Structure formats: structure tokens, C-alpha cells
Amino acid sequence: MNENPLSSQSLDVPPELVRDARAARNIVVLTGAGMSAESGIPTFRDTRTGFWANFDPSALASASGFKRNPALVWGWYEGRRRDVRRRKPNAGHFALQDLAKLDGVESLTVITQNVDDLHERAGSTDLIHLHGNLFGSQCFACQRPYVADTPSAVEDLAEPDAEEDRPTPPPRCRRCNGLVRPAVVWFDELLSPANWTEACRHVQGADLVLVVGSSGEVYPAALLPDMAVERGCPVWIINPADGLDTTFRKAWRSTAAVALPALVAGCAKEE
Fold first, then answer.
1. Could you tell me which residues are beta bridge partners of residue 184?
2. Quick one: which of 187, 200, 241, 271 has the fewest CB in 10 Å?
3. Active-site positions?
């Protein structure tokens, strides 16, 4: 297991959660922005600082905004990619891999609303990106995936400077010469049908669902815990703030980097 420092808060693991986790064979973990917050990755709106502070989100994360000013949108996403590359997975990301290795666990699937790659860098392989991948690109016109011939700004891990925050023209598709866009789900766009179907399939087969760092306000991802509740599957919310309805769910008010390593330790401890 990974050695992760735990605060005193982390020692107080709900006994019922430990029992549910020990009994689980197929675990689904739905993660939101709070999962990456402890790695220093700001939320979507918090990234609009400096040069970008005066731009409306719809201008930076929508198809209509990209059509109006593709260099503005591409430049902003290049900045987000640089920032994520400078961050590291936190203890919560690594703890999910330890949870998957506990005796009796047959599968652990991470369904994430985040577009960063911290789950991958922590070792997650059974992973569904509901809202796309910040480090993927595709043609805006023909949707063909795009892979650059030369390193882009995402490979530059040097300290940021003022020149980095600027509009940057996107590359062109080799197939149709269309503009290349980030492979993320923008406002007013639908989720990938394949990803949504796969996420629903895993939730329908789960015997424990953990909702970590999610406000439960973004749809349709917020429907997934409801699917589990309807089946009688235990659903635990791990979040330091109130938000999700807990009438049919159980809540542990803690953060991902504290709670998840503590849960692993609690499950591994001899009774």
C-alpha cells in the first residue's frame, strides 16, 4: 500500500462504511472537482484569473465561443493543460488503487467528472471520463482524433510567465484541415453515449458506490447515485461540505486525500 500521512480526522472512519467496503465486490467511485482540489487544481471558474478573468465561461467552454474566437479558447486550454501537468496526484488518488487491491474486491471502476489526468497518473486503468479528457484533441469539423507531431505547451513544465497566458491559434486537422479543439464536453454538449452507457452499466452492477468530491449538481452525472439507491446499493458521499441529499445516502464529511487512505487502512485492519 502507499504510505500516506493521515490527519487525526482520518482516523474516525464510519464503521458502517468499513463494513460496506469489506462486503463489496464491485465498487464504483464517482469523482468530482473536490478529488483534484487537494492537488492544487482549481475549479473551472477559479481558472479564470489574470488574462482570462474578464471572459465569460461560455466564451471559453462552448462550441459557439470556439467558432467566434478559436485562438482565445485554444490558448486558455493550453494554459489549463500546463497547470495540470505541474500538479501531482494526491493521497486520495493513490488510495483508490489500494482499495481495489483489498481482499474480496473484484473490480473498482472510477467514473470521473474531471478532465485532468491525475487518476491515470496514480495508476487507475478502469476509468471513465464522463466530461472528456483535457489532454485529448479532436477536429471540430470531422471529430477525428488529433495527435500533434511536435510537443505543445502541455509539455512545457517550466515556471509560468506572462507570455504563456495568451490566445493561441489551434492546429489544423490533417484529414479535412478543420480546426482542432480540446476533447472535452463543453456547455450545451451531450456526453459521449458510449461513456454514459458504460458508466450506467458499472453502476448497475455495483454493490458499493462512493461519491467523492462531487457537489451532485452536474447532470446527468448526478443521476448515477440515484440509480444505485434505487437498486438498494449502499451509496456513500465523501465530501467536506454539505450539498447532496443524504435522505437515502450516507455521508462522511471529509476530503478525498484524508478519507480514502483512512478507509483503506480501516478495511485492512484486523477485526
1. 132
2. 271
3. 131
